Amino acid sequence: MDKLACFFMTARSYDDLEKRIVIAEDLGYEAVGLPQIAARDAMVTLGPIARRTSKIRLGTGVVPIWTRTPITLAQEAAVLQELSGGRFVLGVGVGHRELVESWHGTPFKQPLEAMRDYLTILKQALGDNMVSHQGRVFRSTFSFMGYQPSHVPILVGALGPKMLQLAGELADGIVLWLSSPHHIKEVVLPNLRIGLEKAGKDLDGFEIFACTFAAPGDDRGAARDAVRMQLLTYLQLPHYRAVAESSGFAADLEAFDQELATGNVPGALQGLSDGFIDQIAVTGSKEEMAATIGKFVEAGCTMPGVGIAGRYEGFQGAEWALSSLKEAAASV
To answer: Alpha carbon 253 to chain centroid distance?
Structure first.
């Protein structure tokens, strides 16, 4: 498996983050993604990094559509595509009501209609440079002045059936998070095909980025616990819980909820079974990691993406972890 991506949630300093991305490029990673979380802004962060790299694809995974108008994001994406020499990939998503409304004070409304409007405007702006769309949520009349932006591939953070269908219809790919091979086979692919067929397309060339936490090392127990720690916040958000339930892990969520309700965080995390962790994260020895990556590829993932779990005692540095993961993927 030559096509392996990585992502970085954050780093203590910008220089550290930049160094890790340069290391990933040197190791032969196909792409790197930055999420739009409560840390550095993903779009701004990638600007200088575009000048420090030359081969690795640079992406966002993902920018919530409520944080910028579609035209503002199209302008930023056009600049990053120019700076990177055509290596930029724009990932967008609706995000979570709880975070959008508390962080930004922006109403989270009609997410499916909003995404349809947003994608339509983005595609017009970054395509033929003539925007004329009067949608129910977003509307715009616009054209770039002075230059024509290059094509920017657009990925959608999609997990549920309706958003997956919309992504298949209008986008160039999807970004999955906390998905499992089972979820990809049983939910993702069937719904993507519905959208693709509606647009007269097929899966050929459609990117499926499945992003997972990773913890390399021979002590798989410690590696799994490192991933469990990362999941504490995510499993309190409804979109990700729905994915876990559709993958057959409702009992894990119930055990997690029961302990968390009493304030027992360690107990809540231990309620997440090894089977659950092994479905959604890449952990353990190179052989064990290769087996997990292989399952994602077999399920239909075109680009596995690995992000090193923090607070992991077996972690020996970013370069060692990235190298171990790349070696594991190469054997798939």
So the answer is: 22
